[in-house]
Amino acid sequence: MTIRLSVTALAAATALGLLTQPALAEDFYKDKTVTVMVPSGLGASMGLYGRMLAGALEKYIPGNPTVIVQSRPGAGGTKGTNYAYNAAPVDGSYIAMLSSGNVVLPKLRPMKYDVTKVQWLGSMAVRPSVLWLWHTSPARAVDDAKAQEIILGSTGAGSGMSMWPKLMNGLIGTKFKVIEGYKGGASVNKAAEQGEVHGRWTSYSGLTAAKSQWLQKGQVRVLMQFGPKIRGQDAASIHDLVKGDDLKIVRFMELSEAVGLGFWVRPEVPKDRVAILRKAFMASVTDPEVVKAAAERMAPIDPLSGEEIEKLVAEAYTLSDDLAVRMRTLLGVK
Fold it and tell me: CA dist 299 to 173, 184, 201, 278, Å?
């Protein structure tokens, strides 16, 4: 008799759980505040994309929560990423954007986050990147950057602003000197405009979204490009400059371009809430108003799903230990 009652009680509890769990997941966000964290200043393209996403999420997350944007700049984006992975709420109310260069860092040095364990919501855009120089820079072609020192600005060692130039120095013999410590991409842009540095690495959409007038007026020139070939851009591609096994290193580093503007939540966030956020994310980035606003700002929308990013990251992290050691050596990572 006791066994029969226990089974009955268990069945009833299970049935109740099945009936109420979706409702609880859907209702969780009602009257909540959801934070979208941007790991940089808000004055450049990452802030623009973060604000566009936040505005749309309010419409598509069930319960219509208030969605705010938080800026956590520093250390090339890793300051914000470390906070989001280790200290942010685990209830699904905290969404983080990943500074694209940060996606490769755990292969280079011990980090306080693991991109193979985070739960990816999706990416707003694949982001081919470029290294651009101010028009007064002495370098007009890659060979010029091999013959003389070219000074570039960066937010920190964890940013592509630092990693790509350092890698090029090792792979093809350029003489880029990287000045780190700027608070955000906008600060580096200003430094180039004022003559403190010659230029910087950035996503191409970041350049067109934040400083399209510079391109139109010929105030900057693109020296090199990374990732998928940029339509209408004839600057040298890194794929044409590097050969052999070193190209495998380049392709690993281009995971940052492939993931682009990726957003994620902590590994501990409940799966049902992750599913809600993934659905809301894809609805937000394909919302006609968001697409129109992005086009007006020359900030392309080219989304990837969370599942697609998980596959890209898992595949990239199969890079052999030997090549990982060479990559760290080229980047000066001990």
Answer: 33, 18, 17, 21
